[in-house]
Inverse folding.
DNA sequence: TACCTCCATGTAAACGTTTACAATGTAATC
DNA sequence: GATTACATTGTAAACGTTTACATGGAGGTA
């Protein structure tokens, strides 16, 4: 109930409110004697500054908004944790907002484009319309993308081409030549070009090793375990089926494993499978996969945003994070 | 950059700021003609009210803090989603804060016990010290617990006794008589009595069916898959081993499955296993388990908090959510 | 002692709202 | 047409800070 103000502290310490404010903001223009008095009074009264007043006066919200898809995906949660970590030492509050549809996203982002809501905005694993980018630019509200891409904005992304290449190279080095590729639709306006980049990496790796790309070995469809299972079955039922499959996401890799079980294939004896993302379940399933630095992406994105806010930096930066191969039990030499 | 204020809107609409404020807060004391003028001016100037000023004036933060353990646990994330859903239609911002240690928790909660940070606080799946409860009470800051218990606070909990009973009954109905029970230490000050309640439910179910409780069939130890595996081995190596094991958490149930595999037992032929929580992996592993309404717990907790804030309700309420049996493949009739 | 300098502190005006109260205008009653 | 009553609008004071500017006093120099 009790909300003790600066005025009361000032009275108690027999100084003016200005002095109290100066002490609390560690302005140096204050005697150590009065400083002590003030601090003592604060402690006695249990004073805590009113944030709303401070924010109003300073014209800052000390708040950062993070917009992301539903919190159901473990990868999103992990990135969010990184953001939290980045913001923890700062005085900024983090308000995450998960949107369901792209309309939600746009209307919410539009409502954010207003200086009194946030000092900066993070967009995680979501595309953003050109119109909104311009809107943010025009009001000068800092915007940083994590796992999303836009040339005019500071962004933290992963080198998916390198990742796709890494996965494919791993299979080639094991001795595979007939290597299948399964992914979402490559031209998905909602998920950028990460899938496409992984496919590019796959193509590049094949090319480097002089293996001709065979379009019959490539399948794309809706995201999901079940869809992936069907695509994998099509590949496995080819006259000359692949001996290894690179699934562009772990969820899809799990579908591939389902298909292999269905056809009675042993893993990795009859079929090698590699995924992408290193989700939680990949560990239980012993799935070889490509790891993205999820936590770090959040961390770097958060830090970048803080820096932009504090230094008024304008030049957009691209932070490219490395991927790594997580070697587990679903890949091996072909029979 | 441009931050248009009420004053500018007032000038544009040729009215006073008070009138603008009245229009925007849908106070009825205003002519429809002036209302139109004001709304037109707002639209033209792209006015959005300054939240900090509003909050300062109203003495409200329009913010709710949620304190929870690390966001690594999927169950916590799910509850958080429920909270978000509850708060979405309101004008309250949700700031989640995940704490690592119990010192973190206490110091953070203490820093929250200050009217200018939040209008209400949610504590999810964490114990809270008596001292802090009193602190919140004394400053009149609403506090609601989700998956935690305290007689003086409004709380959303699950009927773990019923859950334990349900799991045990399921096994009994299948024909099992020698039913093992594996759990964390039952007297854990960090996790309340949920484990203990599940045990109570187990005892009650046995009693109801006239089966004598055999203490040799009950094991408790540190939480974790590995620990559970060891406890299960001890049970399985008894002269007259149980034909079914109820593990008080899915993680522990997975350890039981490990032990069964190690002893070459078929599931559910030689051993039935039932878990608790219905974690994500339970689906993959085809584990029969008890489901907790995680999302709903967040939803109900959020709604309860909003109601307390808005109606100044003082009487603590206990909301007991039902559990349900998720029938999968690890339980069956004994041989 | 008189003067200047400099530093610590106090005074008061903002920040953008909301709202009690005052003032104005309009319609109704006599 | 004067008076009243009421509905609408305006005026101005808050809310709790920060900070530019004013003030005052101590110490140094001549």
């Amino acid at each position: 109930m009790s909300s003790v103000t600066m005025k009361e502290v000032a009275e108690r310490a027999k100084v003016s409110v200005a002095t109290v404010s100066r002490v609390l903001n560690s302005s140096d223009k204050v005697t150590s004697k009065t400083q002590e008095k003030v601090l003592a009074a604060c402690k006695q009264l249990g004073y805590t500054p009113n944030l709303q007043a401070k924010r109003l006066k300073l014209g800052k919200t000390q708040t950062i908004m993070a917009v992301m898809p539903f919190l159901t995906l473990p990868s999103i949660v992990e990135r969010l944790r990184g953001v939290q970590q980045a913001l923890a030492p700062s005085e900024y509050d983090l308000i995450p907002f998960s949107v369901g549809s792209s309309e939600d996203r746009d209307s919410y982002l539009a409502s954010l484009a207003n200086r009194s809501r946030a000092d900066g905005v993070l967009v995680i694993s979501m595309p953003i319309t050109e119109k909104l980018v311009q809107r943010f630019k025009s009001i000068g509200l800092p915007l940083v993308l994590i796992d999303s891409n836009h040339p005019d904005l500071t962004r933290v992304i992963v080198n998916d081409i390198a990742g796709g290449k890494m996965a494919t190279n791993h299979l080639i080095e094991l001795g595979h030549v007939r290597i299948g590729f399964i992914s979402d639709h490559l031209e998905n306006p909602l998920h950028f070009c990460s899938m496409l980049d992984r496919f590019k990496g796959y193509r590049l790796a094949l090319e480097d090793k002089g293996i001709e790309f065979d379009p019959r070995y490539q399948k794309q469809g809706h995201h999901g375990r079940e869809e992936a299972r069907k695509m994998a079955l099509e590949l496995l039922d080819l006259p000359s089926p692949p001996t290894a499959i690179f699934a562009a996401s772990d969820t899809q890799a799990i579908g591939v494993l389902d298909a292999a079980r269905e056809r009675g294939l042993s893993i990795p004896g009859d079929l090698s499978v590699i995924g992408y993302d290193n989700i939680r379940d990949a560990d239980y399933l012993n799935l070889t996969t490509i790891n993205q630095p999820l936590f770090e992406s959040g961390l770097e994105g958060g830090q970048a945003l803080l820096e932009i806010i504090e230094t008024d930096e304008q030049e957009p930066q691209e932070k490219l994070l490395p991927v790594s191969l997580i070697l587990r039990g679903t890949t091996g030499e072909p029979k």
